[in-house]
């Protein structure tokens, strides 16, 4: 059964998730956390289990932005709520 055209939705760019950058205090490097769902205007800090083995407390809102298609990341979650 043919679907009615929904041209507006189809014009949206593909969704590659969002990136939240955070500083790894242990190694002094910048890491990237990918989150699949929109980190809505919830600015509560998150606790990120970093690849260095420690958990870093990260402030969310100033650093969030859309992820580009080929941008690498260090960690991935579906929702920031997993880290609160
Ligand atoms: Zn770290």
Characterization of this structure:
- The chain is mostly beta strands and 84 residues long.
- It has one domain.
- The protein is 5% helix and 33% strand.
- The chain has one helix and six strands; from the N terminus they run αββββββ.
- The chain has one helix spanning 7-10; strands at 18-24, 29-35, 46-49, 55-58, 64-66, 75-77.
- A hairpin with a 5-residue loop joins strand 3 and strand 4.
- The longest helix has 4 residues, at 7-10.
- The protein is elongated.
- The N and C termini lie far apart (44 Å).
- It binds zinc ion.
- Zinc ion binds at residues 24, 26-27, 50, 52, 54, 56.
Domains (count): 1
How much strand?
25-35%
Structural class based on helices, strands and sheet pairing: mainly beta
* Terminal Cα span: 44 Å
Number of strands: 6
User: How large, in whole angstroms, is the Cα Rg?
Assistant: 16 Å
Q: What spatial form do the alpha-carbon principal axes imply?
A: elongated
Question: What's the rounded overall pLDDT mean?
Answer: 86
Order of helices and strands: HEEEEEE
Roughly what percent helix? Answer: under 10%
Profile the largest sheet.
Answer: 4 strands, mixed
Q: Biggest sheet, strands in spatial order?
A: 5-1-2-6
Total of helices: 1
Hetero groups bound?
zinc ion
Which regions are unreliable across 5 or more consecutive residues at pLDDT < 50? Answer: none
């Amino acid at each position: 059964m043919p679907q009615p055209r929904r041209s507006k939705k189809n014009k949206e760019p593909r969704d590659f998730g969002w990136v939240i950058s955070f500083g790894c205090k242990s190694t002094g490097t910048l890491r990237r956390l990918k989150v699949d769902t929109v980190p809505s205007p919830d600015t509560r800090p998150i606790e990120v289990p970093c690849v260095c083995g420690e958990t870093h407390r990260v402030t969310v809102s100033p650093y969030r932005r859309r992820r580009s298609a080929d941008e690498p990341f260090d960690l991935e979650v579906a929702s920031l709520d997993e880290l609160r």
